[in-house]
Amino acid sequence: MNPTGLRLRAVLLLCFVSSTACNMFAFTEEPSDRVGKGDGYCSRILRAQSNRREENDDFRLRVEGDPESYQPGNTYRVTVTASRSAYFRGFTLIALKEGAEGDSDEDYAGNFQIIDEEETQFMTNCPPAVTESTPRRRTSIQVFWTAPPSGSGCIYLKASIVQKRIIYFQDEGPLTKRMCEKESLYGNITEKPLLDCCACGTAKYRVTFFGNWSEKIHPKDYPRRANHWSAIIGSSHSKNYVLWEYGGFASDGVKQVAELGSPVKMEEEIRQKGDDVLTVIKMKAQWPAWQPLNVRAAPSAEFSVDRTRHLMSFLTMLGPSPDWNVGLSAEDLCTKECGWAQKVVQDLIPWDAGTDSGVSYESPNKVTEPQDKIRPLTSLDHPQSPFYDPEGGAITPVARVMVERIARKGEQCNIVPDNVDDIVADIAQEEKEEDDTPETCIYSNWSPWSACSSATCDKGKRMRQRMLKAQLDLSVPCPHTQDFEPCMGPGCSDEDASTCMMSEWITWSPCSASCGLGLRSRERYVKQFPEDGSICTMPTEETEDCVVNEECTPSSCLVTEWAEWDLCSATCGLGMKRRERMVKMPPEDGSICGAEVLEVEKCMMPECAIDCIMSEWTEWSECNKSCGKGHTIRTRMVMMEPQFGGNPCPESIQRKKCKVRKCSRGQSNGDDKKRRKEQRDKRRSKLDGAEITSEHPGCKMRPWSSWTECTKLCGGGIQERLMTVKQRFKTSQLSSCKDRKEIRACNVHPC
C-alpha cells in the first residue's frame, strides 16, 4: 500500500474512534462510495480496532446496576467514566452481537438514545455508534441503551477512548461489557435447572412479597374499588414437580388462583405430591393491592430446602383481572459451589394463565377454548390492555419478591466458603406477649430488636421502640415507648457449658388444613452441643392442633380478607366503626353464604368538650345603706367545672346600685348613728350568717383580721375573721365591750 493509502486508513481509524481525533488533522474527505457505510465503513473500523489495542485501567464502561444479563426491550443507562486523576477528550460507543463483524445492520444490537445533545451524538458515517458532540476534557458521559428483542443472544457493549493523541481500545476488560439475554422472565418456557443440587444440610429462607401495583405506577384503567392481591400459594419442591411454567398449561389449581384468587385447589395439588414437596408456602391476601409499608407490612413466609427439594415456586393473582398472575417458577436456591443462595431479588411482571381471553382488568369472563399455554404479558398484546405501549417497551414490574436465607442446619459442603455464619443463627421472631396497653393509647408496631451492645459473652442489652400515635384520654397515662432486655454476644449463653444451647422457636407453620381441624408445627435448632459430648434431649420440634373455619360443610363459602376499618362514626367520645368483606366463592350446595361479611365495633375518640355549669342566681340582697346611695348583690355557684376544653365559667357575683331614701341633714346625733350601726350589723348577720354583737360606743376596736383558709376544698366550707377590743373607756360596761367574730360559707361548688 502506498503512503497516501496508509495515511488515509489512519485518519479513518481516528475518525471512527472519535470526532475529536478528526479535528487533529487537516483531512480531505474521499468520495462517498469509498468511505460511506455502504462500503462497510463501520466494519472496516471495527477490524482496525481489533488490530490495535492499548489497555488502560483508568477508564471504565458500566451498565447501571451491573446486570449480568439483559431483559429484551428494557432500557439501561450506560456510562463511560475516567478515574479520579484521568480524563478523556473523545470516545466511541457501540453495541454489537456476539460473533458479528459489523458488516450489516443486523450485526448491531439494540438502540442508543441520546441523553444530552451537547455531550453526545450519533456518528455521521456510522449511525449505530455514539460519539462526543464537542471536543473538550471530560471525565464521564452517559447514554441510554434499549436492549434488542428476544432471541438476540449475547451482545458486547464496547467503548474506545481518545486521551490527547493516544487511542485506547479494549475487547476485554473495563471498556467492554458482555451481556446475554435473560430467558426466565420473557422466554417462551421457564428456565430449567440444569444441574442436580450438590449442597449439604438444609437451609431455611424467608420470602417477602412487595406489591407495587398502584394507580400511581400503573394509571391506565386502574381498578380503584376492588384492587387486591390474592392469597399467595407455593412450595419448596424437587425438579419432579412443576407448579407452573412458561410454555406449560395451567393446572386446575393454577386456574382457580388465576381466575378466582382461591388457593384451595392449588394447596390440595401441592400436598398430593408427597415427598416431592418439603414446605407449603402461604401468605394472606392483600386488600387493597398497595399501601405504604409504614401502614401495612409486606407479607412474608418461611420455608426450608434440602438437596432434593431445592426449588421454590409460588403465584398470586392480580385482581381483578381475567387470569393474570405473578410469581416465581422453579427458582433454584442451590448454588453451583454446592452452597445455598444468600439472597434472591426478582422484579415480577404479570403473566397470562391461558384460561380466559379477557384483555383488561374487568373484562367479562371469556373462556379460552382450547386452553392456551402460560405466557408473559407484553406491551403489544392488545390496545385495550392496561399495559399497552405502541412502541413495544417493557412492562413496568408490578411486584418484587425477595428471598433471604435466615439459617442453615447440618453439615455444609460449600466449595467456596460462605461469608455469612448463620448455621447457629437465632432466627426466631418475636413471641406474642400479653399486651396491657390501654385502649386509649394508640402505638405503632414495635421495631425489631437492635443489635446487642455486647459483642462478647459479657452481659449487654438491646432495645426496641415504638411511636405513640395518639393519646385519646389525657387522664390515662400511656406506657413507655422503649423496651430493653439483657443479651450477650453471638454464641454465648447463661447456661452451663455442659448443657444444650438452643435457638428460639421459629414461628408456627401454616395450618395443614384449609378448612376444619389440622396441625401446625414449629422448630428450633441446637446452637451449641454440650462440651462433655452428651446428647441434647431438648425437643427441636413442636406440633399442635389448629382450626381453620370450624364449621366446614358443603355449605361453607370462600370469602375475602377483611377490608380496612371505616372512620369512627363519632368525632369525639364513643362511636362505632365498621368493615366489610366480600363472598369470593358461594357454597357448593347453592345455599346462602353464612359467613359474616360485616363487622361493627365500638371506637373511642378524644373526649367531647364539657362546658361549665352554673346554678341559678339567688335573690338580690337588701341595700347595704339605710339611706342615700348603696348597692345590692346576688350570687350563683359553679355546679361543674369545664372539662376537655369546654367553655369557661362565667361570673358568679353581680352587683347593682340601690337607693332607699334620702338622708336628712343634721342626722348626726349619737342615737341616729347607733341605730344605723345596729341596722348594718343586723343585715350583715343575715347575709353572711355571722355571729356578731353590736359595738358599744365606749369601746375602741381594732380592724377586721383577714379571712382564714376555707375548711374544705369543695362541697361547702367555712371561713372566719376577728375584730378585737383595742381600748375600753372608763364609762363603758364590761359586758357590752367584747371581741367580735364573723363567719361565711366558701368553696360551695360540688366535688
TrEMBL record:
Protein location: Secreted, Extracellular space, Extracellular matrix
InterPro entries referenced in this protein's UniProt entry, alphabetically: Reeler_dom, Reeler_sf, Spondin/Thrombospondin_T1, Spondin_N, Spondin_N_sf, TSP1_rpt, TSP1_rpt_sf, TSP1_spondin_dom
Limits of the Spondin domain: 193-386
Skewed-composition ranges (Basic and acidic residues): 670-697
Pfam families in UniProt: Reeler, Spond_N, TSP1_spondin, TSP_1
Keywords from the UniProt entry: Cell adhesion, Disulfide bond, Extracellular matrix, Glycoprotein, Metal-binding, Repeat, Secreted, Signal
GO cellular component: extracellular matrix
Keyword Signal: yes
PANTHER family to which the protein is assigned, alphabetical: SPONDIN (PTHR11311), SPONDIN-1 (PTHR11311:SF16)
Name this protein carries in UniProt: Spondin-1
